[in-house]
Amino acid sequence: MNKxxxxxxxxxxxxxxxxxxxxxARTLExxxxxxxxxxxxxxxxxxxxxxxxRFHQLNLSSIDSDSLHNVYGCLPGTDPxxxxxxxxxxxxxxxxARTSLATRREGDRxxxxxxxxxxxxxxxxxxxATLLRGQTLPADIWFVANSREEGMGDLGxxxxxxxxxxxxxxxxxxxxxxxxxxxxHAGIAVRRLRISCKGQGGHSWLHFGRESAIHGxxxxxxxxxxxxxxDEPRTTFNIGVIEGxxxxxxxxxxxxxxxxxxxxxxxxxxALEAKVREVVAAHQFADLTxxxxxxxxxxxxxxxxxxxxxxxxxxxxxSIGVTAVFEMGSTDANVPLAAGLPAVTIGITHGSNAHRLxxxxxxxxxxxxxxxxxxxxxxxxxxxAA
Length: 386
Description:
Layout: H1 3-8, H2 11-35, H3 45-57, E1 61-65, E2 71-75, E3 84-90, E4 104-106, E5 109-111, H4 115-132, E6 141-146, H5 156-165, E7 169-176, E8 182-187, E9 189-199, E10 202-203, H6 213-225, E11 235-244, E12 250-251, E13 254-263, H7 266-282, E14 288-298, E15 301-302, H8 308-319, E16 325-329, H9 334-338, E17 343-347, E18 351-352, E19 360-362, H10 366-381
Parallel strand pairs: 3-6, 3-7, 7-17, 8-16
Antiparallel strand pairs: 1-2, 2-6, 4-5, 5-19, 8-15, 8-17, 9-13, 9-14, 10-12, 11-13, 18-19
Helix pairs in contact: 2-4, 2-10, 4-10, 8-10
């Protein structure tokens, strides 16, 4: 019998599994409660306050919040010399504070913007803190609800968390509400650029012929779309947001777009960015200035599928009858992975339509997702991921 099988045979673990089944419904209700608290990226304070209150209710140790609205709490282990386990879930959503957060239930689905990404992840974090309090674990468990995962947040929350806890933790487990059964063991490299054009502007009739910031920007953008990228390693680009101009009959003085660059390989990403900069440099305008600003930098990193943490994640899923699917992605795990700290991102249930108003989660897999999370944390605390 291997160490993981021995762990499963522990009567205390069997008792905990029964508690998880009872806690799943409560966790889903708490996910809806969390979802009802607006938490746009950079404005996660109210949701952070909720998590902090819950950490205090659970009597965690070392409870604290930082200036980025990251919330920290610790469940001390029995061996202070053993590296701690970091368990995190991001609190922010892509929806602004004016978005209707109404939810509805249809059969086994609960609909609501931000419910799966990532209110359920935060609720699962709180469930873990609730259920693990009764366990005797060798390693400290750090529970962190972190900010700024989405979009222009640029993983700012987890970057601060890593800097704070890097000397204490030996591995990280990141929670997302959806994607149950998937194990993200590799982080995609991401760079985001704001390319801007500025000019004198003027009246569309009186000053016709004067260079427009929008016209110049469109030419640059068109040229960028003709850049070829390799299929392997997979590499992509996308102009996601364009801004500029004031009225239909004004020559624009300012225009900009946001460009998202991604690759499975950091060197390939650097080469793509160099091509973009060459394209921009090739466009010279007499009356326009062009600027490039880096507005996002998500580092790449990975552990191989053969790594003990990845294999432990697979074993945990197999123990509940689920075949693990190993994936690459852009998640909070990018940061510890890039720094050489073993990390995985796991999901709690199935769902779809993330970042849409009709986002939904499926309720039946939630208990299995929570059990997977707890088994992984417990096994990692016992050193099975090292």
